[in-house]
Amino acid sequence: MGIGIFDLDYMETLPVTQNGGYTVARQPICDRDLRLCAYEILYRNAPLDEYAQIDNPVQATARVCSAAFFQIGLDQLAGALPVFINMTPEWLLSPDLLPRPQHQVVIEILEDIKPTPVLLDSLKVIRKMGYKLALDDFEPTAENMAFVALVDYIKLDVRACSMEELGARVRKFQGLPLKLLAEKVETWQEFEACKALGFHLFQGYFFARPETMGSGQIQENRTALMRILAVLHQAEPDLAELESYILQDPSLYYLILRRINSAYYSLPREVTSIRQALIYLGTDALKLLVSTLVLSQHSRLSGVLLPLALSRAKMCELIAESLKVPDSESYFTVGLLSLLDALLERPLVDLLESLPLAKPIKQALLEHSGPRGEVLSWVIAYEKADWEMLIKLPLTTEIFVERYIEATEWAENLLVGIKR
Asked: What are the residue boundaries of the EAL domain, all occurrences included (predicted)?
């Protein structure tokens, strides 16, 4: 996977304005416990009216660094998490040009780079500077094994060989002081198989698809959760009923009150009940807050998927406003619930049976039909940088760029104080 080659199933695209029509994209990297622990930063050199193309890899890397570290900013892009970035030989031979801060950057050595003596010496310098190194799409050969003693990570493509061959490759590196990363993991079965083989980190689309589990395994927790969500999404939520359900989970009740009383809302007095919160926040704000906290507490994938679900929801709402369609808040609901199956690890059609949603909203979620479903499909296409679809849309590049940045910033601000 060199710079400019994007055959990944899921990518969250962070657009950059005023840069000649290219975008930076990020893909989450998770550990064995499904905790978000890093991002890979990728490059796309295409406006919405052409396909991605890179004629100058050196320039591409320069643009990635400029966009990620200066225009967008690493704080917004990854927070305090490490970022993996592909580097060409020209950059690897010029350590002083590498992006800072060193402790947050993992330099990826592309699969077609040869381990010349000059390059190996430069990599030693890069390590001494405080950077970590990774081998991308690594296929061990007698020649490129010279890299292994210098790196902190080895990335293996699970689609490049059979599981038997993958296991043989993993065994070559067991016992070495490095971490193995399985990339292009698409299913839960592959995730579990890679865990069994001994991988430490995982990258791919598997976390955005629900794992089918037996009904008895999660019935109790999910039933209580769906009761809360059902009340929240009634036309006129019964606050007494909602509070009675939330009181059954004291830790959730505490989190809701702590968040309501935080500096983010700056309310005139301390709030001590859900019904009191309604007076100060209003139904929509309370619905959003409680939904976010519920999902953050009841999903092992919330650290990865909740930021995506929130930014997707907000972008759906903002696109609806750009189109001047009525009821833009229902577009938010569609975006927020579009990842409910992955968050709760149950088929979406089963989950929606428990929610009193209008038929057009359910059709938007299940079939991507109707105006809401169409906007949802646009936003998902933008997240994946699906150029073939995006070039057909009635909105300009600038609108998508602006709405995405606004949605991402809004989601990050909302999540402050929620993550523990």
From this structure: 1-224
